[in-house]
Amino acid sequence: MEAVAGKLLVTATYNGREMTLAPHTLILRHGEMYAGALNLDKTWRSDESPRLGYFKLAGLSDVTVTRKQFEPIAGFQDTVPQADDQLVLAVA
């Protein structure tokens, strides 16, 4: 919650890979919390716009909230990806 509210980068391990994430949202999906975050370590094709991935919080380990701020994705809207998801928190 601190990282989303403060627009702070997070480092974490997910499925055995270290990642730097820019968390834009927290959502509740089927009783589980997920972070909607931009994976800054992902290589994007030149014709592909960066978009949020959804990371189950229970699957993140070695989580560190950094003091480095990020700018939200251009045109970011705080909508949920699936109809029965519930938005808990989003960057302003």
From TrEMBL:
It comes from the Bacteria. This is WYL domain-containing protein. The lineage of its organism: Bacteria, Pseudomonadati, Pseudomonadota, Alphaproteobacteria, Sphingomonadales.
